[in-house]
Design brief:
It contains seven helices and no strands. It is an all-alpha fold and 193 residues long.
């Protein structure tokens, strides 16, 4: 297991170097797609759900790699198991919403919660495993947090994708509720004005 763990940590270090390009690409694409415009309809919001769902899967790959490695420490830790299960559950949720299935508004916020708990879990696990005499727990925690979030750039992209996904799901639900609430006129009937 140690060889696989080391290989996964090497992959994480590689992602730390080239994933900022993916983060910047997403941030620019999301800003470009979400710019100001006229009142948007349900089809627009469904496309946004799909856009953020797929980007969420791509942007979570470093977290999945860290989870498979069992965290950032020198040895495998159990903290990776719940993070991996929760991330895969978020993928199922996002891809279900992308396929047009109804997702409750409260459940659409689950990826944001998983993100925040996972980042803290990985950083805290690393700090607990690696406590050396010349470091404090807080120093190691911050070091792992900065590494995990790719100097904050990954955190910006992850926050944007999870919040945008949840808000887009909320808009789709609101559009669907509004459509159901509109009266349906029978043929030949004219609503009085």
């Amino acid at each position: 297991m140690t060889g696989l763990h080391d290989d996964l940590l090497t992959a994480v270090r590689g992602m730390f170097l080239w994933f900022p390009l993916i983060y910047v690409t997403y941030l620019v694409a999301a800003a470009w797609r979400g710019g100001p415009g006229p009142r948007r309809g349900e089809s627009h919001w469904r496309r946004r759900v799909t856009f953020h769902a797929w980007w969420g899967v791509v942007l979570s790959l470093p977290g999945v790699t860290v989870a498979l490695a069992g965290g950032l420490g020198d040895q495998w830790s159990w903290v990776g198991v719940p993070a991996l299960i929760a991330t895969v559950a978020c993928w199922v949720l996002a891809l279900s919403a992308s396929a047009g299935r109804r997702v409750p508004n409260w459940l659409a916020w689950a990826p944001l919660l998983v993100l925040l708990v996972s980042i803290h879990g990985f950083a805290a696990g690393f700090a607990a495993q690696s406590l050396a005499p010349d470091y404090t727990w807080t120093g190691l925690y911050l070091e792992a947090w900065i590494f995990t979030t790719d100097l904050g750039l990954g955190l910006a992209a992850w926050l944007m994708v999870t919040i945008s996904f949840a808000l887009s799901v909320r808009h789709v639900s609101a559009c669907a509720a509004q459509r159901k609430a509109q009266p349906v006129a029978e043929p030949g009937f004219v609503w009085p004005t």
